[in-house]
Amino acid sequence: MSWTDHELTEVLCVGNEQGIFARCDIPANSVVGVFDGVAEVFSLNPDGSVDWRGQDGGMSIHLKLSDNKLFAIMPIPEVKIDGIDFINHSCDPNCRADAGVLVVETIRPVRKGEQLTLNYHDMDLIKLGRPCWCKHVPDDKRCIL
Asked: Scanning 70, 75, 92, 132, which has the fewest C-beta atoms within 10 Å of its C-beta?
C-alpha cells in the first residue's frame, strides 16, 4: 500500500498488534514513509459511525470529514500492507505526517529499537470518538481519536 524506508525501519509485534520500529538511529526530519492507497468516500451514520461498506476501517487513512462524509485512503486490494502502514498513535509522538498527512517524517532523533508513532489527533486522522490507550497519560488527559 505505501512506501517505507526499510533501511531505517522494521515491523515488529507489539502485544497482539504490529508496529514500526527504528532499525538504527534516525535523525530528526528524516522521511520514513509515504502513505498510499485508493481514495474512497464513506457516509457517516446518524450516530457518527462510518459505513465502511465491508472494508477494514482500522487500515484507513482519514483525510477529511465534511458534509457527513469521510474522505479516506484505503488499502489497495491484493497489495500487501507493510511498513509505515503499521505506524501507531502516541500522545507523545516522534513522527509527524506532512503534505496532506501522507508523508511521514521524524520530528526528533529516534533511537534504534524505538517505536515510531504519530499523534493521530493532530492530523485529523481517526477522530471518531475513540480514546487513545497511551499508558503514560492519565485517563482524563487522553486525547480522543
From this structure: 92
DSSP letter (8 states) at residue 50: B
| Beta strand extents in 67-133 (DSSP E only) | 69-74, 88-89, 95-98, 103-106, 117-118
Cell numbers 485529523 correspond to: 124
**CATH code, 16:** 2.170.270.10
Domain coverage including residue 73: 3-141
Number of domains observed in the structure of the chain:
1
**Cβ count within 10 A of residue 132:** 18
Q: What is the pTM of this model?
A: 0.72
